[in-house]
Amino acid sequence: MIKSIEKVNTLIESLPYIKEFSGKTVVIKYGGNAMTDETLRLSFARDMALLKLVGINPVVVHGGGPQIGSLLEQLGIKSEFIDGLRVTDSATMEIVEMVLVGKVNKEIVNNIHIAGGKAVGISGKDAGLITARKLYHDEQGAKLDIGLVGTVQEINPEIIRILEKDKFIPVIAPIGADTAGVTYNINADIAAGKIAEALNAEKLILLTDIQGVMIDGALVSSFRSDDIDGHIKSGQIKGGMIPKVNCCVEAVKNGVKKAHIIDGRVEHAVLLEIFTDTGVGTQII
Hints:
By secondary structure, the protein is α/β, with parallel strands linked by helices. A hairpin with a 2-residue loop joins strand 6 (130-139) and strand 7. It is globular and about 60 Å long. It has helices at 2-21, 33-36, 38-53, 65-74, 90-114, 158-165, 188-198, 228-233, 241-253, 269-275; strands at 25-30, 57-62, 81-82, 85-86, 119-123, 130-139, 142-155, 169-173, 175-177, 183-186, 203-208, 214-215, 218-219, 222-223, 258-263, 282-284. The protein is built from ten helices and 16 strands. Helix 4 (65-74) crosses helix 5. Strands 5-8-2-1-11-15-16-14 form an eight-stranded mixed β-sheet, with helices on both faces. A four-stranded mixed β-sheet has the order 6-7-10-9. Helix content is 42%, strand content 27%. The longest helix is centred in the middle third of the chain and has 25 residues, at 90-114.
């Protein structure tokens, strides 16, 4: 009986949030351990199905770095990184697209279907969703060519709106093409942020492999976007967290209501963020 009461209390706590976010769009960048751990994969799929069932529109943008690296290794192709960016020649780009669009994307879609949801897998090349442009790495003021690595030039969200209207969950591989038809690999955080902006999303949620933004060893639950730059300059926010917080800041300055960096290693992390009073991880407003 006590367990049953606890379950009912959890539902009661979530009701105001279901009401608040019903009909709203939440963009989730899905990556890291949440994609490679079997229990977490199935948990994430159930969470997406549940969000859609209660009237919230999840849009999933996924990565796939470990899966790409694994196949490249099997094929005897050495992976080269510069400041976390994979140097991508044409042969590597074929592998990247095959893994992200043909394998990882469809596995996520299938898991959502198993969980009782309806998902459709697409890439940024479908219906002109993502127009890309070549990204050069800044090497001490000089532009370094790292191959077919791109960033977002423009988002056309029409296909997402159509899928949402027809009760489907869009699952998006971050591959885009430029105006000449050249295909580029795009960082999933950047793609998710720009898609969230184009959709005027209620939330952008980045799943990571750490608790959130840590300052002096302690988790910070909330930042104002205007305060982030000072923490970066002081060295309190550093390394791989810098592009993530910058992505969130850019999103909230361009129409997204809130952005969140949360621990994807925690089961049901997305639901805990959306449906509980305390939330999890770090929010940027």
